[in-house]
Amino acid sequence: MSSIRQGEERSESLKWLAIFVAVTLALWHSPLAIVLYPFTLLATWFHEMGHGLAGMAVGAEFVSLVILPDGSGYTMSLPPQDISPLGRAFISAGGPLGPAIAGGGLIIASRWRKGSVAALVLFAAALLLSTVLVVDGLTGWIVLPILAAVLLGFAGFASPRHRQLALKFCGIQGCISTYVSLDYLFSRGGVIAAGAQYSDTEQMARALFLPYWFWGLVLTAMIAGIIAVSLWIAYRR
After folding, report:
1. For the chain, how big is the Rg over CA atoms in Å?
2. 220 phi and psi angles, rounded to 5 deg
3. Contact 85, 133 (CB under 8 A)
């Protein structure tokens, strides 16, 4: 493929990325935000899977993941008895970082037409496998398989360009969900449908040292770095 053609495709891809960002942000701040409800649940899945996988990395048992109808959720894990404070903080950090890592990975995957099918299938497989193994609750059981079916539909029947756009759109939803939840990172906690709970940053503060807002700043910087690196990889020449 000529460098001119590659440049044109890169420019078009950046144009669609900007459109997805602008439309998503506009919808979030409008009465039509309900349109993004399935992606709110997807962002919750990213977040809670981040907690669960981070827990597995430090030896915890990933018991269940619950997505609630209001878009919140929680993860049940059984950490080892000898888990260190750093391990507990790592599990807490895995949730806020999960959507940025997943979203950035999908944006990177959208760079290559030939790899877009594999990325969509792997994404759908992760949704279905988690539904079978760890997801608990009707909301997750309904929404996650539907999202997986849509992804498989794109993988099997969409054009290469539309597959790339689907990956890009899902990636943007993951990344922007971190922006939407910034107030959560800078709070001690709140009340969700499952009851009152500490925020992830407050749990990090309790496991380690320094206040929750310090860890909010650290995680915000890490999230911004993850997104920036993902965009650089996806759009570098």
Report:
1. 18
2. -60, -45
3. no
Residues spanned by the domain of 186: 3-235
What's the structural domain count of the chain? 1
Contact of 39 with 173, CB cutoff 8 Å? yes
Report how far residue 101's alpha carbon sits from residue 212's, in angstroms, rounded to the nearest whole number.
22
Q: What is the DSSP letter of 72?
A: -
What pLDDT, in 10s, does the model give residues 5-26?
655 667 787 888 888 888 888 8
Distance CA 67, CA 14 (A): 32
Q: Cβ atoms within 10 A of the Cβ of 132, count?
A: 10
DSSP letter for 48, please: H
Q: Which residues contact 134 (CB under 8 A, 6 or more apart)?
A: 52, 62, 63, 64, 65
d(CA 120, CA 106): 9
Residues 6+ positions from 86 with CB-CB distance below 8 Å? 207, 208
**Whole-prediction pTM:** 0.91
Residue type, 74: Y
What tokens appear for 27 in the block? Answer: 């919808």
According to DSSP, the β-strands at 61-67 and 73-78 are antiparallel
Contacts of 78 (CB under 8 A, 6+ apart): 60, 61, 63
Give me the pLDDT at residue 197, please.
84
- One-letter amino acid at 23 equals V
pLDDT digits over 184-221, tens only? 889 987 666 556 688 999 999 999 989 999 999 999 99
Pairwise CA distance, residues 76 & 74, whole Å: 7
Q: What are phi and psi of 190, to 5 degrees?
A: -175, -170
pLDDT at 10: 72
